[in-house]
Each structure stands twice: as C-alpha cells, then as structure tokens.
Amino acid sequence: MKRAEVRRDGVVLSCLDGGSGDDVIVLLHGLAGSGQEMVPTAEALLPDHHVIAVDQRGHGHSTRRPQDLSRRAYVEDVVAVVEELAGGGPVTVVGQSMGGHTAMLLAAGHPDLVDRLVMLEAGVGGSDPEDNYPARLGDWFASWPVPFADLRGAAEFLGTTPIARSWLRDLDRRADGLWPRFEPDVMRAAIAAVAESARWDEWQQVKAPTLLVQGQHGTIAAAEVRRMLSLRPDVAHVVIPDAGHDVHLEQRVAFVRALRMFLGR
C-alpha cells in the first residue's frame, strides 16, 4: 500500500491506499491508533478490493494538532477521502471503536457515500459523566515516559498485547528518541466528543446494510448492543471468540472471515 494525502480545511490526512477496482473499502482505526494497524486487515482484502486505511486527524501521519476535533470534522474528513481517493463512492466503511462511531455518523449523514457499514467494537457514543473516561484516557496517555530511548524501553512500558505491539511498530523516530504518533490532550478532546452524547437518532437513520462485530471480551455494554439491535433488527451481529476490544489485532483471521462473509452477501 502506498501513502496518499488528502488536504481539507487546513488539515493533511494521510492514507494508505492499495488495490484497485470499484469495490472500495475505507478502514478507520480507533482512538490513538493509525491506518498502519489496519494494514493486516487491508492485506487480507487485497487484491480483490480497493482499500484505503485513513490516519484520522490527530493520528498517525496526519496533522498532529488540528484545531477542530469535533465529530463533524472527523466525518467530513472521510467525505473528502472518499471524494478524492474513491471517486466519490459509494464505499464500504469499516471502523473500529471511535472509527466505528465516525463510520456510523458518515453513513447516517451521507447515505449516498456508504453502501455498507461495519462497526467493530463500536457503539452510539455517550457516557456517564461521573465515569469521565476521556480524562482517564488522556491522563494515561500523558503518563507515557516519552521519549522512549529505544524499542526495548518502550516495550517494557507498553507491554506485549496486540495493541501495544501495534503502537511499538508505529513509533515516530526522532533525534531524541521514540514518540507516539499522537498527543495525549488531542486524544482526550477527540474521545470527549464521542462521549458527549449518545447518537441514537443517527443510528436509526442509517440505511446501509450494517454488520456489528463484537469481541467476546470487548468493552461495548451488552445493554447498548441489545438496544442497537432492537432498533434495527436487520443488522447482522457477530461475536468473535477470545477477543477483546482490538478484535482486528487479536483475532484477525476470524474478523476477516466475518467481514468477507458480510461483503459477499
């Protein structure tokens, strides 16, 4: 896959672009991730599809400190990517966690651009204000002792989980050491916009065929999933065994199998 850039509203969006044909799949990573973590999924879909893995604003190789971190900005970024790199769509959009929330809002607000929607460990957003998980996440990212002197030191801190290995592969090498490809305060603001309100109206506005994928040990509340399925009983639902929140990294083969089955319906 090759790097391509899309520019919108003063922001550079870096994408990994590969394959060819009219069947386009856009992959959206979750908070603090990047398009690089979606490459194993993308490679499993090539060369049968044209696949675009987006570094969302504030992540990866895209603009690190965008001024606008609203949900609208993230959605309009994907609109620009689809228009410039995918011929205006329609596309299949696959999003994990925060990327899945972005994908849902895109499908609701721009039905002409989305012909299939896949939400991986993603829900409608919103949270209990007393939980304050955006602040907790921001504080944790800010606790990283960066710059890391080398990969060994980074691995000692981050661990060996699939998402940790993904972060390790994607560290930014600078003269003073290794840095993550995001800023903690940007991550806090980005996820706070997701947590601000539950988008039940938008969920019900989605007309595209939809696949909801969970990890057996994922983080989306069972009550939320039940309500999502009750409001849209046509939605396909798959639970991947022995997987947590990062299903695409933890059980890639099973996830790709479920994805291919959905695409082939």
Automatic annotation (TrEMBL):
Q: Which SUPFAM superfamilies match?
A: alpha/beta-Hydrolases
Tell me, what is one Gene Ontology molecular-function annotation carried by this entry? hydrolase activity
List keywords of the entry alphabetically.
Answer: Hydrolase
**UniProt domain AB hydrolase-1: residue ranges:** 24-250
Listed PANTHER family: AB HYDROLASE SUPERFAMILY PROTEIN YCLE, MONOACYLGLYCEROL LIPASE
Q: What is this protein called?
A: Alpha/beta hydrolase
Originating species: Micromonospora solifontis
